[in-house]
Design goal:
The complex is a heterodimer of chains A (268) and B (169).
Chain A (H helix, E strand, L loop, with lengths): L1 H5 L10 H11 L9 H17 L6 H18 L23 H29 L25 H21 L5 H6 L3 H15 L2 E3 L9 H16 L3 E5 L6 E5 L15
Antiparallel strand pairs in A: 1-3, 2-3
Chain B lengths: L2 H14 L6 H8 L3 H17 L4 E6 L2 E6 L4 H8 L9 H13 L4 H8 L4 H9 L3 E6 L7 E5 L1 H7 L13
Antiparallel strand pairs in B: 1-2, 3-4
Helix pairs in contact in B: 1-3, 2-3, 5-7
The chains are: A mainly alpha (268), B alpha+beta (169).
Chain lengths: 268, 169
């Protein structure tokens, strides 16, 4: 293990067979168009061999290219008499439909052009890396006026927007000097309301419908009453009853013998 | 609005906006013409550069955006940490170059140039929103067509695709 690590040779990483071929051509310092297929094939295979020796994974594309090169070489060594019918062999491998050295060189040329373009892009990105663009990390939320554009919020942008809306609600609540929602819930006068419910049940009981505890019509009172009743039911001080589906909710004080029975049938 | 005030407003808007702002948009705010805006921005750019100020106005993806002066990069890096946008792999750059010059095109067409399969690279580029699917090619299998996005221009600091140099012959 250590021995192997000690003699690691750093091989350039090639993006694909064209990349490797291009490298070989460049190393030989010859014009792409005057490369001999035999020479380049030899070098290519030698490179694959060294990759094998280093136990590198060789992507199948490299092997396909090796086969392609060998076929080109053999074609040149043994010029075949033109066959009848199908002159060009069918090639299933769409990656390299290369049947002549000229085609190979054309493809290499094309690859070279884009590789250079990629280099240019890389330099641009590097330059751009030096520029820090204005960013607070927190997006200004701009609510579009009437002309709503086609929305293409992503999931996360949507979530972000929702968070922003929540912030705005809180800000609006604060501006009107209302405590935020969470605090409102903590301030529910549940104890007072519970005492009132029990008193009312003792006075007017034994069973009262839910609305008997509501004096005014207001969401606030409804909320407090509901929470108080649930709390009383949890403490087993009252029993909540419903005689039929969707029927009125009835409330009665719990008796000693109610303990342990979760459902109590019959309102009286 | 006075000329000086217009210039100040452009400066303020570009300072606050985190996306490139088009000259046409700025013209709407200023009730002036895009050409006038371009002149004013040019003046602003020159002022920022000649006074060696820390901010610059860049022309990106068809609009203007403010950013720090490139020469300050090493110091800003110390102050704010490295930019989060990690650089692209050579494979991603190659693929992007092919798409940028030949768009719209299919995966197989990209692979034909590179000589390697590209599904993985394409996925990464799609996730980073540097490219997007822009339709399907007519023909057998109706393969997806890819093109570059405005984020691509932003990433490389390009005004438009026309700014790319012609492919070397």
């Amino acid at each position: 293990m250590t021995q192997q690590a000690a003699c690691t040779i750093k091989l350039p990483v090639f993006e694909g067979p064209f990349d490797l071929l291009y490298h070989l051509v460049k190393k030989a310092e010859i014009d792409i168009w005057s490369v001999s297929i035999a020479a380049i094939t030899e070098q290519y295979l030698a490179y694959l061999k060294s990759m094998q020796e280093l136990n590198l994974d060789i992507a199948s594309e490299f092997l396909v290219m090796a086969a392609t090169l060998l076929r080109l070489k053999s074609k040149m060594l043994l010029p075949r008499p033109p066959r009848h019918g199908e002159e060009e062999e069918e090639d299933d491998e769409a990656l390299f439909q290369i049947n002549s050295p000229e085609e190979l060189f054309e493809r290499l040329e094309e690859y070279r052009r884009f590789k250079e373009a990629a280099g240019y892009l890389g330099r641009l990105a590097e330059e751009q890396q030096k520029i820090y663009l204005r960013s607070t990390g927190k997006k200004l939320v701009v609510i579009p006026k009437k002309e709503v554009q086609q929305s293409y919020y992503t999931y996360w942008e949507g979530a972000q927007l929702l968070g922003e809306i929540m912030n705005r609600i809180e800000a609006a609540a604060a501006a009107r000097s209302l405590p935020p929602v969470i605090e409102l819930l903590e301030d529910l006068p549940v104890n007072e309301r519970s005492a009132y419910i029990c008193r009312l049940l003792e006075q007017r009981g034994p069973v009262l419908p839910f609305n008997a505890f509501l004096k005014r019509k207001g969401i606030w009172e409804l909320l407090v009453t509901l929470v108080s009743l649930l709390e009383l039911a949890r403490l087993r001080k009252v029993i909540l009853l419903q005689e039929r589906h969707f029927g009125p909710i009835l409330v009665r004080l719990a008796k000693e013998n109610d303990h342990g029975t979760r459902t109590v049938q019959g309102a009286n | 609005m006075e000329r000086a005030q217009c210039k100040a407003l452009i400066e303020a808007i570009l300072f606050l906006k985190e996306e490139p702002v088009k000259a046409e948009q700025l013209a709407k705010f200023l009730e002036s013409s895009p050409d006038e805006v371009r002149t004013l921005v040019k003046e602003l750019q020159e002022e920022l550069a000649s006074q060696q100020r820390g901010l610059r106005i860049f022309e990106i993806a068809g609009g203007y955006q403010m950013g720090s002066a490139p020469e300050l990069a090493p110091y800003i890096e110390k102050a704010l940490g490295e930019k989060e946008s990690d650089s692209l792999s050579p494979a991603a750059l190659e693929t992007l170059a092919i798409i940028a010059y030949k768009q719209p095109l299919t995966r197989v067409e990209i692979e034909a140039v590179r000589g390697v399969r590209c599904e993985h690279v394409l996925d990464q580029l799609l996730k980073r929103k540097l490219i997007c699917v822009c339709g399907r090619k007519e023909g057998p299998g109706r393969p997806l067509l890819y093109k570059t996005t405005p984020d691509f221009l932003k990433f490389f600091g390009l005004k438009s695709l026309e700014e790319l140099p012609p492919l070397e012959q």
